[in-house]
Amino acid sequence: MQRVPRSVKRCSDSGNWNKVNPIIYNPFSLERNVKNMAALATTSSMACPTPTPSPLHYYYWSANSSTSLKRSSSTSLRISASSLADASALLKAAHHTVETYVKSGMVVGLGSGQGSAMAIEYLGRQLRSGAFRDIVGIPMSVESASEAAKAGIPLDNYQDNSQIDFAFDDADVIEEGTLTAIIGRQSLQSDESLIQEKSILKAADKLVFMVSKKQYRGGLDGSIPVLVQSLNWLETAEEIDDLFLGDAEVWRRPAIGHAGPLGGDFPLVTREGHNVLDVIFTSPISSLDEVAKSLDKIDGGVDHGVISKFPKRKVKGSYPFFFNMQKNNPQVRCTAVIASESGLSIVDNLSKNSVEGL
C-alpha cells in the first residue's frame, strides 16, 4: 500500500474538513520533509482564516480501491510553527556547515542529532552531484552510520590513530563565550558510545557544532552525563554528590523508561560496560571548564559529556612562518553555527569573532 499524507484542518466556524493537496512524505529526505511541512503549514493557514493547531493525518491508499482513503488512527503528528521554524533554521545551518568547511579529499567525522542528519544527507547529495570527491566519513554513532549509508557516503571505522580533517556534531547546549559544549544528554542506546563521539571530536583538526539560538547561552544548568565504572558506581555517585552538594543531583540513567535516582532494575550499560550518571545542576553553572576539571579527578569516573580545551591547530613549516601564521591568521579549532529565524550566527572559540545574518 502507498502512504499518502494530507493536511486536514477544521475551521472553528465550520463543521467541514478542508482537505489540502497531498504532499508526498519521503522518509529518506529530511530537507524535503522540512520544506513540505513548511509549505503545508502555510497552505493550511490560508485555507482557514481562524487557524487552530493543525494535525497531519496519514492515510493509506488501498490498491484494491481507487475511491477510498483510510485514515490511520495510530499516526498523527501535530506541527507547531516554532518547531517548523527551528527545523528550517537548522537546515540552513547544516547546508552552511557542509558548503563552508567540507573540502574534497577530507576525512569527515559525522555527528548525531537533527542538524547532523541534515548535514549528512546534504553531504551525500553533494557527493552524488560531483561537488565533492573522495570524501570518507567516520560515524560517531549507529544513527549517523545509518544516515551516511543511506546518503551514499563511504565510511571507515574510527581508530585511535585516525586522522580526521573535520567533524560536525549537534550539541545539547554550548556555553556562551567559551564554546564549551555538553553532549550526551539524550538517551544513549546500549550500542552507542559517548567515548567514541568525544574521541572523534577531539581528534578532528577542526570541528563545528550546530545548535539553535536557545542552546547557546551563559549560566547553563541541567544535566551533564558522566560515565562511571559499573562495579563501584554508587561510591562514585556519592563522591560526585558531595562535590556539588546543594548545586546538583545525581541520578543513574535507566536503560528503558523512567526510574528513581538508583536507575531502577535495568540501568543503562554502555557498549564499553559503563553506567551513566546524570549530574543534574539545579542552579546556573559558573564555569563548565571548572566542572569538567573536577569530574576528571573523580575516582571511578571514566569520561563525561563536556567538550572543551580547543587548542590551535598546528601549522607545518619553519618557526617564523608558524609564528606569523598564528599571529595574523589563527587557525580556528572550534566553531558554533547558531541557527535562528533571523539567520545564522557564526562564532569561533579563538578570536571570539561573531558573524550574524548569514
Automatic annotation (TrEMBL):
Biological pathway: Carbohydrate degradation; pentose phosphate pathway; D-ribose 5-phosphate from D-ribulose 5-phosphate (non-oxidative stage): step 1/1
PANTHER family reported in the protein's UniProt record: RIBOSE-5-PHOSPHATE ISOMERASE 3, CHLOROPLASTIC-RELATED, RIBOSE-5-PHOSPHATE ISOMERASE 4, CHLOROPLASTIC-RELATED
Catalytic activity: aldehydo-D-ribose 5-phosphate = D-ribulose 5-phosphate
Family: Belongs to the ribose 5-phosphate isomerase family.
UniProt keyword list: Isomerase
EC code(s) of this entry: 5.3.1.6
A molecular-function term among this protein's GO annotations: ribose-5-phosphate isomerase activity
Gene3D superfamilies listed in its UniProt record: 3.30.70.260, 3.40.50.1360
Matches recorded under InterPro entries: NagB/RpiA_transferase-like, Ribose-5P_isomerase, Ribose5P_isomerase_type_A
The keyword Isomerase belongs to this UniProt entry's keyword annotation: yes
Superkingdom as given in the UniProt entry: Eukaryota
Protein name (database record): ribose-5-phosphate isomerase
Lineage per the UniProt record: Eukaryota, Viridiplantae, Streptophyta, Embryophyta, Tracheophyta
